[in-house]
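Folds vary. Our protein:
___
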Amino acid sequence: MINVTKFGYEPGEHEAEKASNSYLMSLIAFIAGLPLPIINLIATLIFYLGNRKGTYFVRWHCTQALLSQLSVLFINSYGFWWTVSIIFTPNEITNQYIAYIIAAVIFNLGEFIATIYTAVQTRKGIHIEWWFYGGLTDLICKSES
């Protein structure tokens, strides 16, 4: 899921801190806005918008964090609204619902662990590419040189 690669240049201390903070932003928002899935995305989007004109290393990691939060939004929103429909309508808890919630919890746990690992490694100036998101980030975030 995670690939450690060599970045084009050695990021400075300030760059590594900002890139690491892009991942920490989603963790803090996750804890603060746990029942509402969109809070993580909004917090990461605000951090991304504030750093989109930063160095390539910072922009790249802000973009990767934003893309990961976008997929988490879809997974968690579906589970959230499915749960709301069970609570407020005569819908019953089915095996499909239980399977989806278990899968969503596993996905969220994996993303949470990967985010912590990436934040720590990025803070050290090590470039971490996530499977799927790293490739998308490469397509979206172009270096200016």
About this structure: The first helix runs from residue 13 to 32. Residues 2-140 form one domain. Residues 9 and 107 are 32 Å apart (CA to CA).
